[in-house]
Amino acid sequence: MFPKKSKILICDDSKICLKLITNILEESGFLLIEQAKNGEQVIECLERKTSRYDLLLLDCNMPGIMGVDLIKNIRESEKYKDLSIIMVSAETEKSVIVKALKNGVNDYLIKPVVKEDLIKKMNTIWQKIPMETQSNIILRAMEKRE
């Protein structure tokens, strides 16, 4: 399981979805959660020198940069190769899910978000992360984070 002090970024253009996912994570004990309303804000968050996220929960259909395109941009950067990404979307079209997976998303969760499903996806991703990367995430979580 991701450490409770893992830094998590949630991106969704729906305030209701942002609130719901934030509440689920907070109820599950996660402490360092930030929100973005669109792909441009995600890029701004990722580019801040003080930010190092461990998990990105990303909507697919948003104004501006679409989630699947944003994933491709993120994965093209060596800097974010270890960033775990779960696409959280109401999009059920198989071609969209396949494109998201091909672009580098670690997993796909169909809305509406249910606590048990989200935590299960997070656990599955954690188990697949290489030990060295897990160690780095744990060490970062142990440091004092603002």
In short:
By secondary structure, this protein is α/β, with parallel strands linked by helices. Helix content is 46%, strand content 16%.
Description of the molecule:
By secondary structure, the chain is of the alpha/beta class. It contains six helices and five strands; from the N terminus they run E-H-E-H-E-H-E-H-E-H-H. Helix 4 links the parallel strand 4 and strand 5 (107-110). The two termini are 21 Å apart. The mean pLDDT is 93.
Question: Characteristics of this structure?
Answer:
single chain, 146 residues, alpha/beta, Rossmann fold, five-stranded parallel β-sheet, 6 helices, 16% strand
CATH secondary-structure class: Alpha Beta
- What would you give as the CATH superfamily? Response regulator
The average pLDDT is: 93
Helix content: 40-55%
Enumerate the strands of the largest sheet in spatial order, edge to edge or round the barrel. 2-1-3-4-5
Total individual domains: 1
SS elements, strand count: 5
- Which of globular, elongated, flat, extended, rod-shaped describes the shape? globular
CATH T-level fold name: Rossmann fold
Order of helices and strands: EHEHEHEHEHH
Number of helices: 6
Strand content: 15-25%
Sheet having the most strands: 5 strands, parallel
Structural class: alpha/beta
Unreliable runs: none
Query: What's the CATH architecture name?
Result: 3-Layer(aba) Sandwich
Radius of gyration: 14 Å
The span between the termini is 21 Å
